[in-house]
Design brief:
Strand content: 15-25%
Distance between the termini: 49 Å
Structural class: alpha+beta
Number of strands: 12
Radius of gyration: 51 Å
CATH architecture of the largest domain: 2-Layer Sandwich
Strand order of the largest sheet: 2-1-5-4-3
Order of helices and strands: HEEHEEEHHHEHEEHEEHEE
């Protein structure tokens, strides 16, 4: 039931419960302390009642003790054991005759019903503080007792109890209201964030309000704003990808439709029909490659990869990519050279071997597409203590400088050179960057003056 209450109610009830326990402890301590003070005061008064009798006996040990005034409760016996004065109630007298009076005091109760012949109740029982002492004279040892009723002290304690109860209830009510108000004030930023969050569905720029205080709620708002920014960026990327994909798919689909229509018209001409079917197959291949790349990009960006590979496994994939690139480059008589050095053979990297091979394949195929006939490509792989370094350099025309900052964007192609004439989809470098980023690394491109250089850095695990 408690867990179903609001946070404000839970904070208030919890605070009031804790305050109640602490207040009860404090009130009990205060009452005990006051009770001890009042008891000590009664004891002092009882002791002071004996002072004139001690002075009288000391001055006139052979004379009878003077009769005490009204209301003075004393019990005095001479050295012979005779009672000189006894104004104590019967119950108190019985108690003191069994107690040694040597500089001591006791608290006893007198039950008046015992000598009035009626049933006892709380009003018939009175407490007394009794102080006793002994006095030694030439004639012998006197025993003196004096009693003081605690009725006034008990009355004061009862009044104090009422005051403490009323004050405690008032304090708890005030504390509860204060806790409710403070909890409401503390949770006000949450309410503001909730209201602002209700407006976010149709607003792509509004952020949750961050309070001025450097507290947990401000940290929560900052974290949620960062999450919203990432979510919006992801949504924008998805929208852009869908838009770009639709644009990229429209051309090969239109070409495929036209080719199929022409093929229908060429049913009577086997040679023309074969040409149209071959062209349609090329369009289908382009569509398949585009769909495969899009799926691969989506998988890399949405799934956290747990694959790892050793330095030796990555070297094997690298040399395999070189072999595949040489086959592709035969049409252009391309020279595909490579260097490989491994300083740390035990190093492991947060990247799958197949993903690394795909990364190298994309860089090499882009380079082959860019170079002219007889051009050259150099791929250099080095595995150092700090990580993996991969460079692919070609002697092609390079990239326009204004295009380099967006070279890794999806479907991005320069206006001249490189993929423009080859019909590339503009996803190769995007895949390279996605794979490198997923492995905790980075990918960059820059012009060398004699061509283009692509660099990939992947740190060790």
């Amino acid at each position: 039931m408690f867990s179903k209450l609001s946070i404000r109610a839970r904070i208030t009830l919890g605070s009031v419960a804790a305050a109640t326990i602490l207040l009860l402890i404090a009130l009990v301590v205060v009452r005990i302390a006051v009770q001890d003070i009042l008891t000590e005061a009664d004891r002092s008064l009882a002791t002071s009642d004996l002072t004139p009798f001690v002075a009288d006996i000391t001055a006139n040990p052979d004379e009878s003790v003077d009769d005490p005034g009204t209301g003075v409760l004393v019990y005095i016996t001479d050295p012979n054991g005779d009672v000189q004065v006894n104004t104590l109630p019967r119950g108190i007298t019985t108690e003191v005759t069994r107690t040694d009076p040597s500089d001591t005091s006791i608290v006893v109760q007198d039950d008046r019903s015992d000598h009035e012949g009626k049933a006892a109740d709380d009003d018939d029982v009175q407490s007394f503080v009794v102080a006793g002492r002994t006095l030694t004279t030439d004639a012998g040892t006197w025993q003196l007792w004096a009693a003081r009723s605690t009725a006034a002290s008990q009355l004061a304690l009862h009044g104090l109890d009422r005051i403490l109860i009323v004050a405690g209830v008032v304090l708890l009510l005030g504390f509860g209201l204060a806790s409710w108000g403070l909890a409401s004030a503390a949770l006000r930023p949450v309410t503001a964030m909730r209201r602002k969050a209700e407006q976010l569905s149709g607003d792509t720029a509004t952020a949750l309000p961050v309070g001025a205080a450097d507290d947990e709620l401000a940290a929560l708002a900052t974290t949620l704003n960062a999450f919203l920014a990432r979510l919006r960026a992801s949504t924008d990327r998805e929208k852009q990808m869908v838009s770009d994909a639709a644009h990229e798919l429209r051309t090969p689909l239109a070409a495929l439709t036209t080719q199929l229509e022409l093929a229908h018209a060429d049913f009577g001409n086997a040679e023309a029909l074969a040409a149209q079917v071959t062209a349609a197959e090329a369009s289908v291949d382009r569509l398949t490659s585009l769909a495969t790349n899009l799926l691969e990009l989506s998988r890399i960006e949405t799934e956290a990869s747990t694959a790892t590979a050793s330095a030796g496994r990555l070297v094997d994939e690298f040399t395999g990519s070189i072999d595949r690139a040489r086959l592709l480059g035969m049409a252009k008589a391309a020279r595909v050279d490579f260097t490989c050095s491994t300083v740390d053979e035990e190093a492991r990297f947060r990247i799958g071997a197949q993903s690394f091979g795909r990364l190298v394949d994309n860089l090499l195929s882009n380079a082959i597409a860019a170079i002219s006939t007889g051009g050259g490509i150099l791929a250099a792989l080095s595995i150092e203590v700090d990580g993996l370094h991969l460079e692919v350099t070609d002697d092609g025309p390079g990239m326009p400088e204004q295009f380099i900052p967006i070279a890794f964007d999806r479907f991005s192609r320069p206006d001249v050179s490189r993929t423009g004439a080859t019909g590339g989809s503009g996803l190769g470098l995007a895949l390279v960057q996605a794979i490198a980023t997923a492995a905790g690394g980075s990918a960059t491109v820059d012009n060398t003056g004699d061509g283009l250089r692509a660099t990939v850095l992947i740190p060790n695990m």
